[in-house]
From TrEMBL:
It comes from Arion vulgaris. This is Uncharacterized protein.
Length: 84
């Protein structure tokens, strides 16, 4: 298990090393309403979660349909939304 973890971490570190905005996102995580000071790994986790949500939102905006549904166009040009 530890070997798998090390491999995944290596891939992640390599991928993030090319992304200069990542460091900026991590450092700007703290909010004034948040009393405790986050540790570095906590900041990274929050930044990752925010990126996931942002990416999902961008995909939804691009597609126009929630990821759990697909658009079905009928022959008479009616549109139905099917739950995947």
């Amino acid at each position: 298990f530890f070997h798998l973890y090390e491999c995944v971490m290596s891939v992640q570190k390599t991928r993030l090393s090319y992304d200069k905005s990542w460091e900026h996102e991590v450092e700007n995580i703290h909010h004034n309403c948040l009393k405790p000071v986050l540790r570095q790994y906590q900041k990274q986790s929050v930044a990752w979660m925010l990126r996931q949500e942002k990416r999902r939102k961008e995909e939804e905006d691009k597609e126009g349909v929630h990821p759990l549904y697909c658009e079905v166009r009928l022959r008479d040009d009616n549109i139905l939304y099917y739950n995947r």
